[in-house]
Amino acid sequence: MSGAQKSAILFLCLGEERGGALMQQLDVSEIRNITTAISTMGEIDASIVEEILLEFDEKISHDGGVVGSIEAARGLLKEFLPEERVAEILDEIGSNTVGNVWKDLSELDAKQLVEFLSKEHNQTVAVILTRIRPEAAAKVLPMLGADRAPDVIERIMQMDNLPTDTIQNIETTLRENVLAKAGRSAEARIEGQLVSIFNKLDEDLFSKISKELEQRQPVQFKAIQQKMFVFDDMVKFKENMLGKIMREVSGNTLPLALRGAKKEVREYFLASLPSRSRGMLQEEMESMGPVKARDVKDAQSQLVEAALRLIADGTVELPETGEDMLEDMSD
């Protein structure tokens, strides 16, 4: 384990009051490193804790292991930092951390999440809905049913700060009973990372790599290929959603991307625009002359990234038949 992880275990064992007092003696970079470790380490076996912190043997033997979570980090930080600064640090960590439970839960298919929530008490449901992304909560709430929704909302309105151990228990349950079953494992995250990398590779290079991987790892590579989302797949978007994606890029990105696109793809893009905008775009493409393949690839990648970004925040969506390709793409 790293030094930051070992320190994180010490702070968790000390508790919020003593841990917070000790953390005041550290500089900002040390606080950030330890907070990141606390937020991402999850549950630590008692045997590992005992090995690292022998001086805490009596306490650990009585209580068992410790659990690191975003709420545990929040409890420590709020002892000596203003609420605004705590929120800033945790938001920064949350946006860059793969293992954040609430981030992963927000990206989960709504049907899978509702299946779990349907068996939970309304108070637990209320807690979860206050921590996932608003757009994800907005999808889930109607699916709970008209009889449950008002009660859940009322509980959210009356909610006070919950004890850290309560939040930790909910996070642990979600990690083990929801995310794990949904495939949010290390293997799934690595696969998602490879999908993102392959999407950005030069087409010729990817073709060469593909031939090798098809021989060495045929099953795994086929699974990755099925989840890839490339520029040509943009034709799967409805015209109004494609328009939103095009507005996300600026400069000559769009004309450059279309200048090197396949004819049917280029025509679909143009057909989705109003006649005036379409004419201006065509003139811009014609005035460009020859373009470099590398520049075209970069421009097309920008459009793909814009599409994935809008899909992640719920602004646009693919037709139902194409949604599987984007599973785990935002990890």
TrEMBL record:
<dbReference type="InterPro" id="IPR028263">
    <property type="entry name" value="FliG_N"/>
</dbReference>
<comment type="similarity">
    <text>Belongs to the FliG family.</text>
</comment>
<keyword id="KW-0282">Flagellum</keyword>
<dbReference type="Pfam" id="PF14842">
    <property type="entry name" value="FliG_N"/>
</dbReference>
<feature type="domain" description="Flagellar motor switch protein FliG N-terminal">
    <location>
        <begin position="1"/>
        <end position="97"/>
    </location>
</feature>
<keyword id="KW-0966">Cell projection</keyword>
<dbReference type="GO" id="GO:0005886">
    <property type="term" value="C:plasma membrane"/>
</dbReference>
<dbReference type="GO" id="GO:0071973">
    <property type="term" value="P:bacterial-type flagellum-dependent cell motility"/>
</dbReference>
<dbReference type="GO" id="GO:0006935">
    <property type="term" value="P:chemotaxis"/>
</dbReference>
<dbReference type="Pfam" id="PF01706">
    <property type="entry name" value="FliG_C"/>
</dbReference>
<keyword id="KW-0472">Membrane</keyword>
<keyword id="KW-1003">Cell membrane</keyword>
<comment type="function">
    <text>FliG is one of three proteins (FliG, FliN, FliM) that forms the rotor-mounted switch complex (C ring), located at the base of the basal body. This complex interacts with the CheY and CheZ chemotaxis proteins, in addition to contacting components of the motor that determine the direction of flagellar rotation.</text>
</comment>
<dbReference type="InterPro" id="IPR032779">
    <property type="entry name" value="FliG_M"/>
</dbReference>
<dbReference type="Pfam" id="PF14841">
    <property type="entry name" value="FliG_M"/>
</dbReference>
<protein>
    <recommendedName>
        <fullName>Flagellar motor switch protein FliG</fullName>
    </recommendedName>
</protein>
<keyword id="KW-0969">Cilium</keyword>
<keyword id="KW-0145">Chemotaxis</keyword>
<dbReference type="GO" id="GO:0009425">
    <property type="term" value="C:bacterial-type flagellum basal body"/>
</dbReference>
<dbReference type="InterPro" id="IPR023087">
    <property type="entry name" value="Flg_Motor_Flig_C"/>
</dbReference>
<feature type="domain" description="Flagellar motor switch protein FliG C-terminal">
    <location>
        <begin position="212"/>
        <end position="318"/>
    </location>
</feature>
<dbReference type="InterPro" id="IPR000090">
    <property type="entry name" value="Flg_Motor_Flig"/>
</dbReference>
<keyword id="KW-0283">Flagellar rotation</keyword>
<keyword id="KW-0975">Bacterial flagellum</keyword>
<feature type="domain" description="Flagellar motor switch protein FliG middle">
    <location>
        <begin position="111"/>
        <end position="180"/>
    </location>
</feature>
<dbReference type="GO" id="GO:0003774">
    <property type="term" value="F:cytoskeletal motor activity"/>
</dbReference>
<dbReference type="InterPro" id="IPR011002">
    <property type="entry name" value="FliG_a-hlx"/>
</dbReference>
